[in-house]
Amino acid sequence: MVSFLIAYASWSGNTEEVAEIVEETLLSEGLDVTVHRIGNGPIPNPRQFDAMIIGSFTWDKGATPDKVKDFVADISYKPENVYVFGTGDTQFGGDELFCHAADKLKRFYESKYEPLKIEQSPRGIQEKKVIEWAKGVHQHWQHLHALKC
Ligand SMILES: Cc1cc2nc3c(=O)[nH]c(=O)nc-3n(C[C@H](O)[C@H](O)[C@H](O)COP(=O)(O)O)c2cc1C
């Protein structure tokens, strides 16, 4: 079974909600999904999964939270198939800094898929966007995998 790791950091719950919707969507597509809250418990080994999805909120003028930086450093290599999502708020620096941590993670991991950016909580009108993105991630992975076979 294809296995995905979702590793996310959340302070006030928005990014956690996105992670939950992504998890539900991928489970409904028949994938094996493991969720890791960054900073809680032992760090999973991305090598044991077919792909990793990393989610983060953005802090202090476009900053990536220290927990997330530590997680990236602790993994100590760049997994190949990485997908990125983030939550943020445009009132903290407009479009330029909105979900900046997600942009930086995408660049770092050279993710081939556009990161998902959610303003605050995904529940309500943005939920559909999360579901579509998660389905798109699965399709993207399937496409890449088919090319490799
Ligand atoms: C002090 C502070 C600084 C923030 N800075 C930014 C920022 O630079 N860019 C951004 O998009 N969001 C920023 N935010 C908004 C958070 O990223 C947003 O509320 C996010 O959804 C929180 O995620 P969480 O609920 O998972 O902790 C900031 C929030 C706080 C409280």
Automatic annotation (TrEMBL):
Keywords: Electron transport, Flavoprotein, FMN, Transport. Belongs to the flavodoxin family. The keyword Transcription does not apply. One of its GO terms (molecular function) is oxidoreductase activity, acting on NAD(P)H. Low-potential electron donor to a number of redox enzymes. This is Flavodoxin. Residues 4-138 form the Flavodoxin-like domain. Pfam families: Flavodoxin_1. It comes from Sporosarcina thermotolerans. InterPro entries: Flavodoxin, Flavodoxin/NO_synth, Flavoprotein-like_sf. Its cofactor is FMN.
